[in-house]
Design a protein that fits this description.
- The complex is a heterodimer.
- By secondary structure, chain A is an all-alpha fold.
- Chain A has helices spanning 2-22, 26-46, 50-75, 91-113, 130-139, 142-168.
- In chain A, α1 runs antiparallel to α2 (26-46).
- The radius of gyration of chain A is 21 Å and the shape is extended.
- Chain B contains 13 helices and two strands.
- Chain B has helices spanning 6-42, 62-73, 84-100, 128-149, 153-184, 189-194, 203-206, 208-221, 233-236, 246-271, 282-288, 293-324, 332-361, and strands at residues 110-113, 116-119.
- The radius of gyration of chain B is 22 Å and the shape is globular.
- Chain A binds chain B through residues 1, 25, 27-28, 31, 34, 50-51, 54-55, 57-58, 61-63, 65-67, 69-70, 73-74, 76-77, 79, 129-130, and chain B through 1-2, 81, 83, 86, 125-127, 130-131, 133-135, 137-138, 140-141, 144-145, 148-149, 151, 156, 159-160, 163-164, 166-167, 170, 187.
């Protein structure tokens, strides 16, 4: 039953991800990316990680991509350069990109083709619930959590300082 | 692999059908008439009474029919130079979140009917409240893209205002919800509703400041007066949907009215005791009708609760309409100032005070 839902969503995600790269207009790319984020959220939901799925929608699809769209819309006011300029003739970049793709594909076939998988351990009833994620974050992973929040705070203050110094000029 | 629980499937389909009927089939068309009639009464006019069938006007109710016919038969116009795909997609993107939110809105408690426990909510998600919030934030795209893809400067300005306004007020809305979560200790809308059986447990008494901020933020999210800058007629023609006609315009219109119903429902559940009647517990009601047997008593209590819930919803719809026809429109910078400099610090303070009180009570 889960596979029946997973395969269409997985296929959709792959096509939308391709759409992000191949789309000619920036807004089209952004729309594909939003669609792919929602698809990923659905994959999380299938795996019983409802909280992560909702966070995926709120943070990536709901907040970050809106800002992306905002910037694209502001930059595209004239509407005459809706087509990305493709970078041509950069052999080093193309070569490195090819090596990366080949490496990832090789690793993927090696892992998936290499013998048996262990059958997954049955998950607990509380897995993925907000309560469970919250308790784990504030007990086992409290140090990484706090470090990450300090990092975000520093980034926020940095952004305010940079924007303010520009405004004072 | 396919052992489907047919009873559960049937019950769920009935609930989905009921929700669709109530929102799209009943509230959305009726509210177009209510809005005109209420504005007419408030401004001492006669109001919608022109459409008639053989001389009968039925208080202007035929206007709903006339509007529907007009929208279906009007030419669907896409302006020159517009992005055809996105122009067509955006009303759909705007309308779907408004309806989908209702999937987690409970319109009654749990009832024992014919030996089956019927929970009156389509999907009792563990993250219900966050689901509402997440889906509501997706509607931004519909409005933002509508303006951008129309190839019209007024529309673009309107959609930029939509995007900035919705992002700003989502922050306040999210932080206000935190206060409610802290008080009830759950994100399930059904549990929040069930926790408000006694009057003094209602959200309005436990989170009074939270209610006002949530209500203001949700009206701003719905872009209605006094927060209707994205479509400010006197400045931007009609804002983001200037270039829309026919049923596509109708979809934006419907999205706005369905969102009003959603706001009223969420406010009822979070702050006004959901489906409960003050001083009347479910047990008391059940004992009154115990002569009718378990199923009969449960059925009657269920009908009463659903009726009470929708009565409260209708009250809050009326309240939103009254606000809409009372206040003038804010200026754009006033909206931003209210969102970031007043509501955001207030909602943070609300969380702090709630935390201190909870700690003190414990």
């Amino acid at each position: 039953m889960e596979l029946l839902i997973f395969y269409p969503i997985g296929t959709l995600c792959v096509f939308l991800a391709l759409g992000v790269v191949l789309n000619k207009s920036p807004i089209g790319s952004a729309m594909c990316l939003i669609g792919m984020m929602l698809g990923l959220a659905a994959v999380f939901a299938i795996q019983h990680a409802h909280f992560i799925a909702i966070l995926q929608v709120i943070i990536y699809a709901g907040a970050i991509m809106v800002l992306f769209m905002f910037v694209i819309m502001l930059l595209n006011l004239k509407g005459d350069d809706t087509v990305w300029k493709t970078r041509e003739g950069n052999t080093l970049l193309t070569g490195l990109g090819a090596v990366l793709v080949v490496g990832i594909l090789y690793k993927m076939t090696e892992i998936t083709g290499g013998g048996e998988f262990d059958s997954p351990t049955p998950i607990q009833e509380t897995f993925g619930t907000t309560v469970k994620v919250g308790t784990t974050l504030f007990t086992d992973f409290v140090l990484p959590f706090e470090v990450a929040s300090i990092l975000l705070l520093a980034a926020m203050i940095g952004a305010v300082v940079l924007a303010k110094s520009k405004m004072d000029d | 692999m396919f052992d489907i629980n047919w009873i559960e499937l049937f019950v769920t389909l009935v609930k989905i059908g009921f929700i669709l009927f109530v929102t799209v089939g009943f509230f959305a068309p009726i509210l177009t008439w209510v809005e005109r009639k209420q504005s007419a009464i408030m401004q001492d006019r006669i109001g919608a009474n022109r459409a008639d069938i053989m001389g009968f006007t039925a208080l202007g109710l035929f206007h709903i029919l006339a509007d529907g016919l007009k929208m279906f038969t009007k030419e669907d116009f896409i302006p020159d130079g517009a992005n055809r795909v996105l122009h067509t997609m955006s009303p759909i993107i705007a309308l779907i979140p408004a309806i989908v939110t209702f999937a987690v809105v409970p319109f009654g408690g749990v009832y024992d009917l014919f030996g089956v426990k019927v929970n009156l909510v389509v999907s009792d998600l563990d993250v219900g409240l966050l689901f509402v919030f997440a889906i509501a934030s997706l509607a931004t795209y519909g409005y933002a893209i509508a303006g951008w893809s129309s190839n019209n400067n007024w529309s673009l300005l309107g959609s930029l205002r939509v995007a900035s306004q919705m992002i700003s007020y989502e922050v306040t809305m999210g932080l206000t919800i935190v206060g409610v979560l802290m008080v009830y200790g759950t994100m399930k809308l059904t549990e929040i509703g069930a926790a408000q059986e006694s009057l003094w447990m209602w959200g309005i008494f436990l989170q009074p400041v939270g209610f006002f901020m949530f209500f203001a933020a949700s009206i701003a999210e719905n872009k209605r007066i006094p927060f209707d800058n994205p479509e400010a007629e006197s400045e931007l023609v009609a804002g983001y949907f200037t270039e829309y006609s026919g049923l596509k315009f109708g979809m934006f219109f419907m999205a706005e009215f369905i969102e009003m119903v959603t706001i009223a429902a969420i406010v009822t559940i979070l702050f006004f005791g959901a489906w409960h009647i003050p001083f009347l517990t479910t047990e008391t009601l059940l004992s009154w009708f115990h002569i009718l047997g378990t199923t009969g008593a449960n059925l009657i209590v269920m009908l009463i609760h659903v009726g009470v819930f929708f009565a409260k919803v209708i009250f809050f719809i009326w309240f939103q309409m009254t606000i809409r026809w009372t206040l003038p429109r804010f200026r754009y910078d006033q909206i931003m100032k209210l969102g970031w400099k007043i509501l955001l610090p207030l909602s943070l303070a609300n969380i702090l005070v709630t935390g201190i009180v909870i700690l003190a009570v414990k």
